[in-house]
Write a structure and sequence with these properties.
With 501 residues, the chain is α/β, with parallel strands linked by helices. Helices cover 45% and strands 14% of the residues.
Length: 501
C-alpha cells in the first residue's frame, strides 16, 4: 500500500479513481467499482499531510467523477443549445469544477475534524460525511441530486435497503462497505487477521441482509393490471420548438397514438405539444373527446401560460376519463431558469447563451386522476429527488415522469436518468411510467425492475400492462428519520474517538 504515499502519484490516482467511479452507474452498472473507488479515495485522504491536501485530492477525484459522469452537459449546451463550442466548453468545465468542490470540501472536513487515523474515523466518519455532502448537493442552489453513489447498487444485493432508507441509506451502506474493504486490506498488510476476518464477516452480513430484504414485497397488488401506452415521438431537438414544426410534431404523435386507443391510459412525453395550452385548447378538446369515446385517459406534457402574463409553467394535463394538471416545481438551473438573474442573466446575454425561463409550480400538488387511478406526476429532472417523490400523496397507484431526454443526445445521461426512476419505484413500492421523447421510454415495476422499454432514438409506442400497488414501504412511513438516526450514530461514534490513536 506504499504506492498511495508516493506524493507525485496521489493526484493521478485521485483523478483516475474518480473517473472509474462512473462505471458503477448505468449504463455500465459495474457495481463493485462503487465499492473500490471510494476505498482508494479513503486511502489517499488517510495519507494526506493536511486538510488542504485532502481538499485538492478530493477535488481531483470530483473532476474525474463528474467529468466522466456528466460530460453530456456539453451536448445539451453546444449541440442543442446553439451555443458556441468555446462557451459550451467553458460552461461545462465550470459546472464540473463546481461539482468537484463537494468531494473536495468533504476531504477537507474529514481530515480537519478527524485528525487521528483510527478505526472510528474510517468506518463511521467517512460514510457519514459522504452522505451528508450528497444530501447537501441535493438542495443547494436548487440541487443536483445526480450520481448519488447509492444508485450504483441498483443491480446489487444492497438495493434491498432502499425501501427502508432510500438512496441515501444505500449510499451510506455502500461507502461503509468501501471503508470495510479498505480496513480489511490494511489489517491483512498489518497481519492483524482477527480484525480482517471481522471486516470480511461484517461485509458479508450486510450483503446477505440486503439480498434477503430484496426478496420482500413491501406493497401488494391493487386491483387488476391496466394497459398503458407510452408514445415516444422521437422529435429532433433541433426542430422541436420551431413554429413551422408544430403541426408535423402533433401529427406524428396523433398518428402513433391512433392504433392504441384500446389502452386505458395514453401518455405523451414532456412538452410533446410544443405550444401553450391556451393555444392548443381546440386540439386538447378533440383529444379529450377521443379519449372519452374509448374510455381512456390522455395525458401529455405541455407548456402552460401563468396568470397575469407572469411567464410559463412546464406542465402535464390529463383529459378524457381522467383529470388534473401538474406544474413542474423543481426547475433545472441554467436550463429552465436563470438563478441570480441580475448577475447571471447579464453574463448569459453577454455570451449569447439561449436559456428557457420557466416559473415553478406548487410544491405539493394534487395527484392526476386516470381511470380511477391516482398518479403522482413529475417532469424530467424531478424524479431525481427522493424526498420530493415521497412527500406526495401516500395512497398513489402509479408514479409518472415525462421527460425530453433528447437534450442529452446519444450519451449515458438517459440511462442514468432511468436508473434514478428505478430507485424511486423501489423506494416507494410503486410502478413508474417513464415517458420520453426519444428514449429511454420504460415501464418499471414496483420492485424497481424495468418491465419493458422502447428502442431508443426512434418513433415507437410502448404498450404494456401495469400492476398498481397499495400499502407503504418503511421509507414512505418514516422518511428521513431512520437515515438521520444512522447518520448521527455514525457521527457521534466518530466524534467520540476522533482524538484517540
Amino acid at each position: 500500500m506504499r504506492i498511495f504515499f508516493r506524493h507525485w502519484l496521489k493526484p493521478l490516482i485521485a483523478l483516475l479513481a474518480g473517473a472509474l467511479l462512473t462505471l458503477g452507474f448505468a449504463p455500465f452498472s459495474v457495481f463493485p467499482v462503487a465499492i473500490i473507488s471510494p476505498a482508494v479515495l479513503l486511502a489517499l485522504w488517510l495519507s494526506a499531510s493536511s486538510p488542504k491536501q485532502s481538499f485538492w485530492l478530493g477535488w481531483l477525484f470530483g473532476l474525474g467523477f463528474f467529468g466522466t459522469g456528466v460530460y453530456w452537459v456539453f451536448i445539451s449546451i453546444n449541440t442543442y443549445g446553439n451555443t458556441t463550442f468555446f462557451v459550451s466548453i467553458l460552461i461545462t468545465c465550470l459546472m464540473i469544477a463546481v461539482l468537484a468542490l463537494f468531494p473536495a470540501f468533504l476531504g477537507m472536513v474529514f481530515t480537519r475534524f478527524f485528525p487521528k487515523n483510527n478505526t472510528s474515523k474510517i468506518l463511521f466518519a467517512f460514510p457519514a460525511l459522504w452522505v451528508l455532502f450528497e444530501w447537501i448537493r441535493s438542495w443547494i442552489f436548487s440541487g443536483f441530486p445526480w450520481l448519488f453513489i447509492g444508485y450504483s447498487q441498483m443491480h446489487s444485493p444492497l438495493r434491498g435497503f432502499a425501501p427502508f432508507l432510500s438512496v441515501y441509506g444505500v449510499s451510506l451502506i455502500t461507502v461503509f462497505c468501501s471503508a470495510l474493504l479498505f480496513l480489511l486490506i490494511k489489517k491483512i498488510f498489518e497481519k492483524n487477521y482477527r480484525t480482517a476476518i471481522f471486516c470480511a464477516l461484517t461485509f458479508l452480513i450486510l450483503w446477505i441482509t440486503g439480498a434477503l430484504f430484496s426478496l420482500i414485497s413491501w406493497t401488494k397488488p391493487s386491483g387488476f393490471p391496466i394497459q398503458v401506452s407510452l408514445v415516444q415521438g422521437n422529435i429532433p431537438q433541433q426542430v422541436k420548438w420551431s413554429p413551422d414544426q408544430v403541426q408535423p410534431t402533433v401529427d406524428r404523435y396523433v398518428e402513433l397514438t391512433d392504433p392504441h386507443w384500446n389502452s386505458q391510459i395514453i401518455i405523451w412525453p414532456e412538452s410533446a405539444i410544443p405550444v401553450p395550452l391556451s393555444s392548443a385548447a381546440e386540439f386538447m378538446q378533440k383529444m379529450a373527446e377521443m379519449a372519452g369515446q374509448h374510455n381512456a385517459t390522455f395525458i401529455t406534457g405541455i407548456p402552460v401560460k401563468a396568470p397575469n402574463d407572469q411567464g410559463y409553467y412546464n406542465g402535464i394535463i390529463a383529459v378524457g376519463k381522467g383529470s388534473g394538471m401538474y406544474i413542474k416545481h423543481r426547475l433545472v438551473p441554467f436550463g429552465e431558469y436563470i438563478p441570480f438573474r441580475k448577475v447571471c442573466g447579464r453574463v448569459m446575454d453577454l455570451l449569447h447563451v439561449p436559456m428557457s425561463d420557466f416559473i415553478p409550480g406548487d410544491a405539493k400538488p394534487h395527484p392526476i386522476m386516470a381511470n380511477d387511478k391516482k398518479i403522482a406526476a413529475f417532469i424530467c429532472y424531478e424524479i431525481a429527488y427522493p424526498e420530493q417523490v415521497r412527500m406526495r400523496d401516500g395512497n398513489i397507484d402509479i408514479i409518472l415522469t415525462v421527460s425530453n431526454d433528447a437534450w442529452f443526445g446519444h450519451s449515458i445521461a438517459q440511462a442514468q436518468h432511468v436508473e434514478m426512476a428505478e430507485m424511486r419505484a423501489l423506494e416507494m413500492g410503486r410502478p413508474v411510467l417513464f415517458a420520453s421523447n426519444d428514449g429511454i421510454t420504460a415501464v418499471i415495476d414496483a420492485r424497481g425492475k424495468i418491465q419493458s422499454d422502447a428502442p431508443q432514438h426512434e418513433a415507437y409506442v410502448l404498450t404494456d400492462d401495469v400492476q398498481t400497488t397499495e400499502g407503504k414501504t418503511p421509507w414512505q412511513r418514516w422518511g428521513m428519520v431512520p437515515i438521520a438516526l444512522l447518520f448521527f450514530i455514525f457521527l457521534l461514534i466518530a466524534l467520540r474517538d476522533r482524538k484517540n490513536p
